[in-house]
Design a protein that fits this description.
- By secondary structure, the chain is α+β, with helices and mostly antiparallel strands.
- The protein folds into four domains: about 70-210, PAS domain (Beta-Lactamase), CATH 3.30.450.20; about 220-310, PAS domain (Beta-Lactamase, 2-Layer Sandwich), CATH 3.30.450; about 395-475, Helix Hairpins; about 475-620, Heat Shock Protein 90, CATH 3.30.565.
- Helices cover about 50% and strands about 20% of the residues.
- The protein has helices at about 5-70, 70-80, 85-105, 120, 150-155, 210-215, 245-250, 255, 310-360, 375-435, 445-470, 485-490, 495-500, 520-535, 590-600; strands at about 110-115, 125-130, 135, 165, 170, 170-175, 175, 185-190, 200-205, 225-230, 235, 270-275, 285-290, 300-305, 475-480, 480, 505-510, 515, 540-550, 555-560, 605-610, 615-620, 630.
Length: about 625
């Protein structure tokens, strides 16, 4: 990618990044603020609900104190012990019944008021019940003994005591739970005769669910209210069938529905707030539980509130939409500004880029921003100087190439003449030596004549090899896709007799086809085979044609057993006229020609060797060329 679009992309990326970070910070800040406000509102509302409930409990406490403090009760206490059949007692009891009735009529959530004496196992003296919408006095024959009940036994017997509040549980009659269930809170105080002797208790039963719902009727459309005891057992919750599990033999506890409450009831923490998940049994977004002690006997309850914040969520969504719209507008404006600035910045760079392209085409007269005093101006001036330097160097190179071309022509002519002039005398000398061999001469001289003839033949072959070596690269060649495996098999046909005579084994990797110059590849493999056959010795000779393909290139090679190259000679064997064994035939040009052919392909060649093997490996140019491509 060019630098101009990179600069534009970078500028736009910075704009988008900064705008996105700004938007995320704004969104996170707004969301956090809304969440904090929701939590604070829920905690404040729960605290208000607790205050409201505690106020209602204090009113109940006031009512029981008012009833227990009636002077009439002292007179009843005196007569109840000493003159139970007294008409005055009947009159006092009748008067007390009217007071109880008036209290029940004034307090619709009071379900029962009783006077229970200590005589006769705590038998009820007066009992008024609310049955439906009416208030009924229970006849003496239906009055029950309550001395065994917890609320009678636990009511303190001392004067000036605080009211006793029972546990909130399901009301029982004759030791059976009433049906339908009626959650009941009982509050009582002891009563005394004129001599301050305890003779019984006054007790009010509160129908707790209507009492509770009446207190919170104005907020139940937005909040779900939960009330538990100090163990987490539900006393009040939206599903009334899942309350008072401790009375019904069921495990209806808040921590079963809200795992976050796990150890809350056993810990010293007084409050906890958490968000409701999608599978919660409670409706709403947020829930808060808070412990409190509404009764004067220090018993702990926990009030929970689950709140809906749909209106706040809608307002928050509207604000978020406005923020997103504003950020989108800012991004558009900033992107346009960044595009204009980046365009201004890259324009001189584009001019330099166009100038380089024009220079590549050979156009010299180019206008560059050399008058700028910044880095781009420095680059333009450097480019201008480079252009002038290229022009001068190009002129020098043209002149040098012309001189080199003339020199090559002279060298080629000299090579042709010298090779011809050298071969002719050598051929004549060889002919004379051949004639002398037929003359009667001593055996020692015949041996010298054979050596002289061999040296003439070797010299003629060296001249021919040198001529072949110098001609590599002269002609125009075309690259083709060469079937390397077929090429090797074709070359091996020329050596069949020697391979069979020496019982040489041939092994071959799968040789991939490759773009190359077919004629040169033929000469390359022929020379490699000749070199391997010439220097290998011993039995069980193997010629192994190798090929290894990597991510970047294919490495071909020929490995033979029966020969070895010393480490210090593995580079010099490719030099012209280099022979490792002077006693073997050859001119020392075979591997040099191989190296020249590989370099013509822009490849590389090297030797690897062990004590009993030699591996000549080479690479060809990996880039594929079209069949029409030529190489000079």
């Amino acid at each position: 990618m060019k630098i101009s679009p990179k600069i534009r992309i970078l500028a736009l990326s910075l704009v988008l990044l900064s705008s996105s970070i700004t938007a995320l910070i704004a969104f996170w800040g707004h969301t956090t603020m809304i969440a904090n406000l929701q939590t604070e509102a829920l905690e404040r509302n729960t605290n208000n609900q607790i205050n409201h409930l505690e106020l209602a409990i204090r009113e109940i406490s006031h009512d029981i104190k008012l009833l227990a403090g009636l002077p009439l009760l002292r007179e009843i206490g005196d007569l109840y012990e000493t003159a139970p059949q007294s008409p005055i007692l009947d009159q006092d009891l009748s008067h007390l019944r009217e007071i109880f009735r008036e209290t029940l009529e004034a307090m619709p959530n009071y379900s029962q008021i009783r006077l229970i004496g200590k005589k006769d196992s705590g038998k009820e003296i007066i009992r008024l019940d609310r049955i439906g919408t009416s208030i009924e006095e229970i006849q003496e024959s239906d009055l029950r003994q309550k001395g065994h009940r917890d609320y009678f036994l636990d009511t303190p017997r001392a004067m000036s005591t605080k009211p006793y509040f029972s546990k909130i549980d399901l009301n029982r009659e004759d030791n059976f739970i009433e049906v339908p269930h009626r959650p009941t809170l009982r509050v009582s105080l002891p009563v005394f005769d004129s001599s301050d002797q305890f003779f019984g208790i006054v007790i009010i039963n509160i129908n707790f669910r209507p009492f509770f719902e009446k207190l919170f009727e104005k907020i139940l459309d937005r909040y779900q209210i939960f009330l538990t005891d100090d163990q987490g057992n539900y006393l009040i919750q939206p599903d009334s069938t899942r309350t008072f599990g401790f009375d019904l033999g069921e495990d209806y506890r808040a921590q079963n529905d809200f795992p976050e409450l796990g150890d809350f009831f056993d810990s010293p923490r007084t409050q906890i707030t958490f968000r409701l998940d999608a599978f919660s049994t409670a409706a709403g977004d947020l829930i808060h539980f808070q412990k409190f002690q509404p009764f004067e006997n220090s018993r702990t309850l926990a009030l929970g509130s689950a709140a809906y914040f749909d209106d706040i969520a809608q307002t928050s969504a509207s604000i978020n939409l406005q923020v997103i719209s504003l950020v989108a507008l800012l991004i558009a404006i900033a992107s346009l500004f960044a595009f204009l600035i980046s365009t201004k910045l890259v324009r001189p760079i584009q001019r330099i880029s166009r100038a380089s392209k024009e220079l590549k085409k050979g156009k010299i007269q180019l206008k560059l921003p050399t008058d700028r005093d910044d880095e781009i101006g420095d680059l333009a001036r450097a480019f201008s100087d480079m252009r002038e330097s290229i022009t001068r160097n190009e002129d020098d190179l043209i002149a040098a190439n012309h001189k080199l071309s003339e020199a090559n022509k002279d060298l080629k002519h000299f090579s042709h003449i010298s090779s011809h002039e050298l071969r002719e005398p050598l051929h004549r000398i060889a002919g004379i030596i051949n004639l002398l061999k037929f003359e009667e001469t001593p055996a020692a001289q015949k041996e010298l004549l054979r050596d002289a003839e061999n040296e003439c033949v070797r010299a003629i072959q060296q001249i021919a090899d040198f001529r072949a070596f110098s001609r590599i690269g002269e002609d125009t060649l075309l690259r083709e896709t060469v079937d390397m495996e077929a090429m090797v098999k074709k070359i091996l046909e020329n050596f069949t007799s020697e391979l069979d005579r020496r019982n040489i084994k041939i092994r071959m990797d799968p040789l991939p086809s490759h773009s190359a110059y077919p004629n040169l590849i033929y000469v390359l493999y022929r020379n490699l085979v000749e070199n391997a056959l010439k220097y290998s010795k011993g039995e069980r000779i193997v010629l192994y044609f190798t090929a290894e393909t990597t991510e970047t290139e294919t490495i071909f090679g020929l490995k033979n057993t029966g020969s070895s190259i010393p480490p210090e000679k593995r580079d010099s064997i490719f030099d012209l006229f280099t022979r490792l064994d002077k006693n073997r035939p050859g001119t020392g040009t075979g591997l040099t020609i191989c190296k020249r052919i590989v370099e013509r392909h822009s490849g590389r060649i090297w030797a690897e060797s062990t004590e009993n093997s030699t591996h000549i490996r080479y690479t060809l140019e990996k880039k594929n060329h079209a069949n029409t491509e030529s190489d000079q």
